[in-house]
Amino acid sequence: MINNQTIEQLMNTSCVGFGTSGARGLAEKMTDEICYAYTIGFIQYLRTIKDMPVLKSIAIAGDLRPSTARIMNACAKAIQDSGLKIINTGTLPSPAIALYGIENTIPTIMVTGSHIPDDRNGIKFNTAYGEILKADEEGIRSQKIQLTQEIFNSSGKFIEAENYLPTVNLQAEQLYIARYLKFFPDNALSQLKIGVYQHSGVARDLISNVLIQLGAEVINLGRSEIFIPVDTEAVRTEDERLAKEWVEKYQLDAIVSTDGDADRPLISDENGIWFRGDIVGILCAHYLNVQHIITPVSSNTLVEKAKIFQQVYRTRIGSPYVIEMMQYALSQGQKHVAGYEANGGFLSADRLEANGQQLSPLPTRDALIVLLSLLHFSKVKQCKMSKLMDGLPGRYTYSGRIKEIPSDKSMALLNSYINAERQMEDNMKIKFIQDFSSALDAQASIVDINVVDGLRITLNNDDIIHLRPSGNAPEFRCYTEAGSFEQAYQLNNKILEIIPALIS
Fold it and tell me: Rounded to two decimals, what is the model's pTM?
């Protein structure tokens, strides 16, 4: 039973992790009891924050995973038992529910596993001001859960199965759609023929709706009633093939899509080539006239080399770090501040301007702003999507992953280099070059080592290899950067072929 345990203790006993991305775990482990407890912990923590608005209601939304409705119901019961009003916004993108909370100064909860497989799920928690940050995470994990009545059986299910979710309130969806219809010009996307890869993304119908209202001709593609874990940082070979087939068959100007909860964009050019997330982040920021840009250390160095922005800040990987740095930039009196992650999710810290209109800040990952900005950017520049990068330095990134590798094993491998680097840098360089010699040029040497988040190695030919465990799943991730896409792709594959032998 969960009584008299902290969230920290529940993490260990339930196998459901908790961090600044919220709760994540196997759906079968995310029982009614655990989801209820984590929500109670979140609410208890909110009541300890002195500068928060008076807590009266919490809005909740979810994605299209088969386990989402049950988890939303468990969260709703916790909200109800805490004496708060439940606002059920239904199935909705993560940035839409966050926007609704910020505009109405109320906390929100999003039930989603984002891009991870459908046997897993998660719960994202937002305060009235946006995503929970690292300090909030610590505060929630320290909360002790105490139940005054028995409401769960020995399996963690509700003893009395009821629907605790009220009728769906559409205001959050309407607010999100209106945000972009007001910002972009009338018929901004006229004469464009756009494919919407719908798969099982929660924003699939919303995106089509917005595109049509902005004047585009829309072809809906690949709709699935079975959840498909689309990861915008590691696009499936199947999705690469489908994109090329679709643009040829329907003569499309672009294909747009998102991950499961629509905080990460996926967009192709007229040839069916998917853009990298850290490229669309740069293009979106350029379109929105951003002056100060924040992005994690894993993003393409093109952001500095292009000399588009007044200042570029680098952070650890994860939206909380991007948000904290955006807040710092604002505290220094800087304006037109925004950030993006390597997955393409775009965050804005203050009002941005384009087309004579202002866009209110949304300090959480958003996919729709990226999709619409790039499509309209191509109209403004009167060019094909594939030409949006013309004139910018040629730097290319690729990311890959190995699944089902526990984080402790991943960290053990990285620490074998990082600890060596701290003791004697030359030894670390020799060890790394020896371990990965079959993937590197014969004359390769290391010119820079960055351990801000994982291990990031810059070689003497300007290629970059970045290794780190995923923060959301038992995966080992590899990011590579080079002067050509083919080199970045081949280097990534070669590195990932070597990793299993080093970890075992």
Answer: 0.91
- Looking at residues 1-16, what average pLDDT do you find? 88
pLDDT band at 430 (very low <50, low <70, confident <90, very high): confident
Neighbours of 83 (CB within 10 A): 9
Q: What are phi and psi of 197, to 5 degrees?
A: -75, 100
Helix axes 368-380 and 171-183, enclosed angle (nearest 10): 20
Give residue 420's pLDDT band: very low, low, confident or very high (50, 70, 90): low
Distance of alpha carbon 355 from alpha carbon 348, whole angstroms: 17
CATH 3.40.120.10 fits 5-171, yes or no: yes
Look at residue 408 in the predicted model and tell me its pLDDT. 85
Kindly give the pairing relationship between strand 265-267 and strand 130-131: unpaired
| Residue 84 confidence (pLDDT) above 90 | yes
Which one is the CATH code of 184-387: 3.30.70.120, 2.40.70.10, 3.40.50.700, 3.40.120.10? Answer: 3.40.120.10
Report the distance separating Cα 274 and Cα 242, nearest Å: 11
Q: How far is residue 494's CA from residue 504's CA, in Å, rounded to a whole number? A: 17
231: pLDDT strictly greater than 90 = no
Annotated catalytic residues are: 114
Q: How far, in Å, CA of 280 to CA of 264, rounded?
A: 11
Long-range contacts made by residues 457-464, C-beta under 8 angstroms, separation at least 24? 457/432, 463/487, 463/488, 463/491, 464/301
Q: How far apart are CA 244 and CA 235, in angstroms?
A: 13
Same fold yes or no, 5-171 and 396-503:
no
Q: Are strands 311-315 and 292-296 parallel, antiparallel or unpaired?
A: parallel
Backbone Cα Rg of the chain: 23
Q: Where do we find the tokens 């840098």?
A: 425
164, HSE (Cβ side, Cα atoms, 13 Å): 23
Of 3.30.950.10, 3.40.50.720, 3.40.50.1100, 3.30.310.50, which CATH number belongs to 396-503? 3.30.310.50
The residues, any chain, with a CB within 8 Å of residue 389's CB and separated by 6 or more, are 279, 283
